[in-house]
Structure formats: C-alpha cells, structure tokens
Amino acid sequence: MQAIKGPICELGEWHCDLQTAKQLLLEKELEIPLIGTFVRNPLDWYRSAWMYWKETERFPRPEDAPQIETDNFECFVRNCMAVEPQGYVSKLYEQFTGHIPGEISVIGKQENLVDDLIRLLKLAGENFDEEKLQTVKSKNVAGSKTDLTLPGYSYYLTQKVIQFEQRTFKRYGYIF
Fold it and tell me: Residue 37: beta bridge partners?
C-alpha cells in the first residue's frame, strides 16, 4: 500500500463515515492515515439538527430510514429516541468514530473546534497559520439563514436526553 502524501483531504462524500473512508482507502490501495473527526454535545446536536432541517428542509438520513422530522422540537427529539433506543446521536457518532478506542486518531469537539483542529493539523504535520486560524469567525450558525430561534429544552427532556445519550456523554467527556 502507498501512503497518502500532501495536504489534508476529505474522503468520500459529505459526512463520510469511518467504514466508508477505510473502504475508499483500501480500494485505492492507500495506507490508512491519521484520521480526525469532530463530535458535539448531544443536547446541542439535537438543536442544531432540528434547526438545519427547519432552515433547509433537508435532514441528513438515508431515504429508507424512518422519518423523524417535525415542526415541534421536543417531538423531533422524542422521534429520534423512538427510532434508535440505544441513543440516536450515540449510534450516529459511532459511525464516524468507530466502536473501539484508537480507530480514529483524533476526535475533536465542536465546542473546542479551533483548538482541536490545530491539534489535528499539528499531529498531521501540516503547515498552517495558527494565528490566522484562531481569528476565523464561525459560519453556518443556527438561525443565520432564517429568523428561527434556537429551541430550548424542558427540564424533563434535558434529563431524558442525558440519560438516553449516556454513551456519548461518557465516551467523549461531556460531564454533567
């Protein structure tokens, strides 16, 4: 197998999962390089996913998957819970981070995006302007395309999500 040389690149199509990335590398007879991915707090993920659907009328799921989209945020979260009783976000993240520690070289957090990206780039041996990267402003922020307000959680639903997504909260260090 030959090693990937050159700049960091994205493999596959939009949001390529770990299994697909490995398969693409094997098909090209390339060594599996340093691989990085990012996660976010499940409470934020649900709000962001719902806002994305409301703003774009697209939800990133296979066409044959059960429809979970609804105009009511709390109903959307409950639909996710009904579709994947082991944790909707937990299962989703495992598609990108693998099930076994070490399958991914770097798992960064959305909450520390710039710092974790810098760590990934340094580990990859990339040349980049760290100061310039530190000054990049956020894009694709919820509610930026419409006048929608980021939804809130009831106390009860917050507790249910924390319990429901316990695997993600524990594995990626989201402590309450």
Answer: 107
